[in-house]
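Support request, priority: normal
Reporter: lab tech (M.K.)
Component: structure prediction queue

Hi team, I submitted a job for Glycine/sarcosine/betaine reductase complex component C subunit alpha from Clostridium moutaii yesterday, and the status page still shows it as pending. I've pasted the exact input below so you can check whether something in the sequence is tripping the parser. The sequence length should be 379 residues. Please let me know if I need to resubmit or if it's stuck on your end.
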Amino acid sequence: MDKTKKMIAEVFSNIADGIENGTFKKRFKIGLTIYGSEHGINEMIKAAQLSRSKYGDFDIVLIGPKVDCDFEIVEVSNSEEGHRKMISLLEEKKIDGCVTQHFDFPIGISTIGRLVAPGSGKNMIISTTTGTMSTNRVDSMVKNCIGGIAVAKSIGIDNPTVGILNIDGARGAQRALKELQNRGYEINFAQSLRKNGEVLMRGNDILAGTPDIMVCDSLTGNLLIKIFAAYTTGGNYETQGYGYGPGIGENYDKLINIVSRASGAALICEGLKYCAMCAEGKVLHRAKSEFEKAKCAGLEEILIKEKPSDVEQVKMPAKEIVTYAIPGIDILELDNACNVLWRKDIYCESGMGCTGPVILVQSEKGEKAIEILKRAGYK
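Reply from support: The job had stalled in the queue. We restarted it manually and it finished. Here are the results:
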């Protein structure tokens, strides 16, 4: 008995010392819903076992049927009940985060995934992979960037580099983010590894993992995560990366990380660790803070300027031979940009070059057209 008392006293003494000197770390509890996988419940249990043996610095709570294992289990009878129980456990603070599949987030929330770039082995954040920050494309991509920065900082990347994938809306997002940066919101833009070295990223940059955060829309991000997770297996079994990541929004208060129903044990193992890192890094608090800083820098005002307007009908000047290509105009803005030139009596046509959309004008009018577009805010 005396020996037991001594051991208990030593444990409490160590805890007290850890709290006093700052070395004591809370053990976070991460839930895992085990219904819903295309590979069965045993694959989910295997994922939990892998994560515990590989990391062991957080606890895992299974949400599903009663199974023969040594994990804490919260019993539910199906996937839908599992999601309801997951929400209640999060609200009651009985778990700090949860990994699940096929969860519907409200508008304003999108998930921040992580993949392993095959060209370098580097981890790269994909912002975003499912859900949507906004129903407006440019709005959504700008907010995806802010959410990605919050997640990166929460997992220990203090000054993450940001690249914008060269997709529809990228130019508008770049313009808005540059203005946000100029107004005081800190963004560390990456440079493409391609010869032009601009902020807009190519497919090569995904393979190489050029930026810490790759900003895109959720459908493109969803496709990227799926391809990079399963490209070695043929598609029906995901093995690589960390999944679709935590749902992030300006005021979202539940840490829910998503994996696919096709995800295998090795990926879910890393998804559990990713969730635990986000919990330890207070990712939801970080997100709120980052959005507040962006709003103080004029986020809402900037986004209003980027809202698409109705295309004004302007009389087209007389047709000319056009061979001078002006790149750098987003495809969603081509019609408005053409109208700007037509209004100045410069004939132009929209086109698509090998690097994206272009406006074509007569060679002699190229420099004048560029200057007009610059004044109108398109360059």
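Residues 2-21 form the longest helix (20 residues). DSSP finds twelve helices and 15 strands in the chain. Let us know if anything else looks off. Ticket resolved.
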